Amino acid sequence: MTQPRSLTNARLADGRLVDIDLLDGRIAAISPATSAPEAQDRLDLCGRLLVPGFVDGHIHLDKTLLGLPFQPHRPGDSIAERIAAEKALLRHLPISVEARAHVLVAQVSRFGTIALRSHVDIDTDYGLSNLHALLSVREAVRDVMDIQIVAFPQNGILRDAGTAELLDEAVATGADLVGGLDPAGIDGDITAHLDIVFGIAERRGVGIDIHLHDPGALGCFELRDIASRTMASGLQGRVAVAHAFALGEVEPAVFGATAEALARAEVAIMTNEPGAAPMPPVGRLRDAGVLVFAGSDNIRDAWSPYGNGDMLERAMLIGYRQGMMADSDLCHTFAMATALPARALGLGTDYGLAPGARADLVALDAGSVPEAVAGRSGGRIVIKRGRVLGHR
Ligand SMILES: [Zn+2]
Fold first, then answer.
1. Which of 23, 64, 175, 354 sits 20 to 30 Å CA-CA off 196?
2. 330: CA distance to ligand 1 center in Å?
3. Are residues 158 and 253 in the same domain?
4. Could you read off the pLDDT of 193-239 as tens digits, one per residue?
């Protein structure tokens, strides 16, 4: 059955067993489960845990090498070296950006991701070609995936003259947000870099999502600068910073001042659990009122051979790395892959397991959210706009 009128015997996160009526791709009503006999237009979930679909807050659809045989990783010591290595690799691939992006969207969809934010490389070499590829993918998959696109200056803005104009054009062409990259570490001029990024956001009326790997006190200085610019431009709630390694490696006073500034400006932080790199402390940021959400970031690309796009596994990795053991901790890492990125992406009341919301749901083979996270529950039934996309 691809379009059931109701889902029966669904286990909610609070333990209740319910039936859910669906209408026009949305949740019409939620009521206690009845033992009504099987009907053709019902999908019996048999007590599976039903949750809102996963939201991947940070992915790079144009970078993945999925669709090709496994590619050996090419190491690079600095970000600049790895940018150059990626360019060399991607220049001669036998399949298009579009084809690779389609493979990745299909893969994350099977894991239960129903919305994602993808960065797309914008530079003077690619121009807007990768953006056009992703705009076409977005249109083609609109029934299975909601896609936001960030115009991302992977080569820097100042160090690749002409990129500022391309970023502006990218937003005018259909990118939803403007990105940035290490204002100090890549461009060497924090003020000039952020002037351009915030200038485009204000002029075009879009949000901002900046990659920030700059370390320690320098990175925290940049975070506070971003926070104060966010307040000045009235962009509270529409600015995110990815990685923000600096928050994981500064003394408490600097951390406290920076977290307070981020919370006040409603600047969100994205982490993917960055392997050996320092990581923003999720619990301390949550306690300080900072929204921290998860994303896959690199999946099988020139930056990392790892990753599969499973946001439940991502929640587990974050909890494991940060020593989060209690049920409440596991529920929080789960929220980092569902409700919190939904808030960061501005999905609003369309998202969630409540009457009126879109029926974008995942049924998991688990009895509770903590069990699903800890066990990286494998079984999935993915439902998008009320349509069953498939079982896994
Ligand atoms: Zn990234």
1. 64
2. 24
3. yes
4. 999 999 999 999 999 999 999 999 999 999 999 999 999 999 999 99
The CATH number linked to 222 is 3.20.20.140
- Helix (H/G/I), strand (E/B), else coil: 195: helix
354 CA from centroid of ligand 1 (Å): 32
Query: What domain range includes position 361?
Result: 6-52+350-391
State the Cα–Cα distance between residues 279 and 354, nearest whole angstrom.
Answer: 33
* Domain co-membership, 387 together with 295: no
Indicate whether 272 and 163 sit together in one domain.
yes
Give a yes or no: residue 62 inside a domain: yes
Q: Let me know if residue 272 belongs to a domain.
A: yes
CA of 352 from ligand 1 middle (Å) equals 26
The angle, 0 to 180 degrees and rounded to 10, between the axes of the packed helices 129-140 and 163-173 is 20
Say if residue 207 is in the same domain as residue 293: yes
Q: How far, in Å, is the centroid of ligand 1 from the Cα of 70? A: 20
Q: How far is the CA of 155 from the centre of ligand 1 (A)?
A: 13
- How many A from CA of 270 to the centre of ligand 1? 10
**Does any domain span residue 42?**
yes
Do 64 and 100 belong to one domain?
yes
Q: Does residue 1 lie in a domain region?
A: no
What does the pLDDT look like over 261-298, one tens digit per residue? 999 999 999 999 999 999 999 999 999 999 999 999 99
State in Å: Cα 63 to ligand 1 middle: 10
Ligand 1 midpoint to CA 169 (Å):
21
CA atoms within 13 A on the CB side of 332: 20
Task: Give me the number of domains the chain comprises.
Answer: 2
Q: What's the gap in Å between 31 CA and the centre of ligand 1?
A: 41
Rounded to whole angstroms, how far apart are CA atoms 64 and 298?
7
How big, in percent rounded to 5, are the helix, strand and coil portions of the chain? 35, 25, 40
- Same domain for 39 and 82? no
